[in-house]
């Protein structure tokens, strides 16, 4: 018999959220080689629920509902998109109607009101679109809460690096299985066995779920591409009254108040891919910053001067955007030190993009599942859909959310030779804000 019913590899927000939902139903093992070094540790936590892709709106709404139930996890400061032209302001009316039709409050506001809502980040704009039920999520608090919930329900967490996966049948030894074909057999569930090789010894389970974030390429040849993305924190400053996070679609920049510092990120550059081979040298989800100095300088121009000044002279790491190994470790440590000491800093964090901007979450083949390319914004909702699917397959639940399962199916790009290129091109559309909305609406 297998040691566990379900083994989850990866204890970022996705793996822990899934473990919390499965642990009261089955014997769950979670393996992670080094917690708090994945993308979750770096996420600045913007949660905008409206998405032009309806399934993502639904998953974000479910996630926000779940995060609200965790103390200190979700701050409902609201979100504000700003328009810098009359055309953008017109499009905001349509976008506001779309939001309301999906149950999200949304209001188009004047330039003066936008500035009043977020004076540190907004000046000289045409108007804005305010989403009062959006907010910011603390991914570390959420991950810790889900871990605690999973532990309390009996899940076991082990620090271990999974170096190989073998699949087979109980009592017949195991055999390595290559390829991504989905096998629709009629094996009894007790007969399956997945063995995970680690330096802490082998672990076996009936069902395997890979929640390995930017390292998913190690075991899953799926079209989810790791990309580099810059984010910067200002030097520490006195606290201000709360304000919504702000997106400036015309500049592809987003910015927020983190309490005692400000933050800013930018998609205004060509996508920078980090190959699966390069990812093998990364023990944390960061790379060198050299590619991003100009991107940061451009992004800062959108801020009022009194806020911009806080980012000046920030600590950055040297090296190429895809550089891993010791250099990335140093960059990660430097960034954390600068933050602890209240110094301005900027870093290059890594996350996944997929060909249609949606997660790859579901069954890869019998007994093997994944949840990859999942944002903090959608993590609780996505893992809820996946948990129900796994429980149903184990004979412990019913079929639910069939449309969402289809939308998230990790094999939906099978046979599409250009899927990786398409995934990379989605990078600049990730916020799926007004800018993207106007592009979608264009004839
Ligand atoms: C700079 C930046 C800004 C972002 N901004 C936002 C935002 O504003 N809003 C938002 O919603 N999202 C944002 N994201 C995206 C979000 O952070 C990620 O999508 C999310 O955290 C991914 O979670 P995860 O659990 O899938 O991956 P991770 O947190 O990376 O966890 C994967 C885990 O798998 C483990 N692992 C991998 N391979 C193995 C193995 N072989 N053996 C053992 N363990 C293994 C790793 O150690 C890691 O802990 C941002 C990300 C970055 C980097």
UniProtKB/TrEMBL annotation:
Domain of life the protein comes from: Eukaryota
Pfam family membership, one: DAO
Location of the region described as Disordered in the Swiss-Prot/TrEMBL record: 170-189
Compositionally skewed regions (Basic and acidic residues) per UniProt: 173-189
Location of the FAD dependent oxidoreductase domain: 5-388
Record-linked PANTHER family: PYRUVATE DEHYDROGENASE PHOSPHATASE REGULATORY SUBUNIT, MITOCHONDRIAL, SARCOSINE DEHYDROGENASE-RELATED
Name used for this protein in its record: FAD dependent oxidoreductase domain-containing protein
């Amino acid at each position: 018999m297998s040691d566990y019913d379900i083994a989850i590899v990866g204890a970022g927000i996705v793996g822990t959220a899934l473990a919390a939902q499965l642990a009261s139903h089955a014997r769950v093992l979670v393996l992670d080689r080094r917690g708090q070094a994945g993308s979750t540790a770096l996420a600045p936590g913007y949660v905008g629920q409206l998405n032009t892709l309806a399934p993502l709106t639904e998953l974000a709404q479910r996630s926000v509902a779940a995060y609200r139930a965790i103390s200190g996890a979700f701050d409902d400061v609201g979100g504000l998109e700003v328009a810098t032209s009359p055309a953008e302001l017109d499009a905001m009316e349509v976008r506001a109607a779309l939001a309301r039709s999906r149950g999200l409050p949304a209001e188009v506001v004047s330039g003066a009101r936008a500035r009043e809502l977020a004076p540190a980040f907004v000046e000289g704009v045409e108007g804005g679109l305010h989403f009062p039920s959006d907010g910011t999520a603390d991914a570390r608090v959420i991950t810790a809460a889900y871990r605690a919930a999973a532990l309390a329900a009996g899940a076991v967490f082990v620090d271990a690096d999974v170096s190989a996966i073998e699949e087979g049948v109980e009592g017949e030894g195991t055999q390595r299985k290559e390829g991504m074909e989905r096998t629709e057999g009629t094996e009894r569930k007790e007969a399956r066995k997945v063995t995970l090789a680690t330096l802490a010894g082998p672990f076996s389970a009936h069902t395997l779920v890979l929640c390995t974030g930017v390292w998913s390429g190690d075991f899953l040849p799926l079209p989810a591409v790791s990309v580099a993305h810059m984010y910067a924190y200002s030097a520490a400053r006195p606290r201000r009254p709360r304000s919504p996070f702000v997106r400036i679609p015309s500049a592809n920049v987003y910015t927020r108040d983190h309490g005692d510092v400000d933050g800013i990120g930018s998609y205004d550059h060509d996508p920078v891919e980090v190959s699966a081979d390069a990812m093998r040298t990364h023990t944390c989800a960061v790379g060198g910053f050299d590619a991003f100095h100009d991107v940061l300088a451009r992004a800062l121009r959108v801020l009022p001067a009194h806020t911009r000044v806080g980012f000046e002279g920030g600590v950055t790491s040297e090296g190429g955007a895809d550089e891993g190994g010791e250099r990335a470790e140093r960059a990660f440590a430097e960034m954390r030190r600068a933050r602890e000491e209240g110094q301005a800093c900027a870093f290059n964090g890594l996350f996944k993009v997929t060909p249609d901007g949606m997660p790859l979450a579901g069954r890869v083949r019998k007994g093997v599942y994944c949840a990859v390319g999942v944002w903090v914004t959608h993590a609780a909702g996505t893992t809820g859909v996946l948990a129900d699917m796994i429980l149903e397959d184990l004979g412990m639940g019913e079929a639910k959310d069939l449309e969402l399962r289809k939308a998230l199916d990790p094999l939906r790009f099978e046979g599409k030779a250009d899927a990786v290129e398409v995934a990379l091109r989605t990078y600049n559309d990730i916020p799926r804000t007004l800018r993207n909305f106007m592009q979608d609406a264009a004839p």
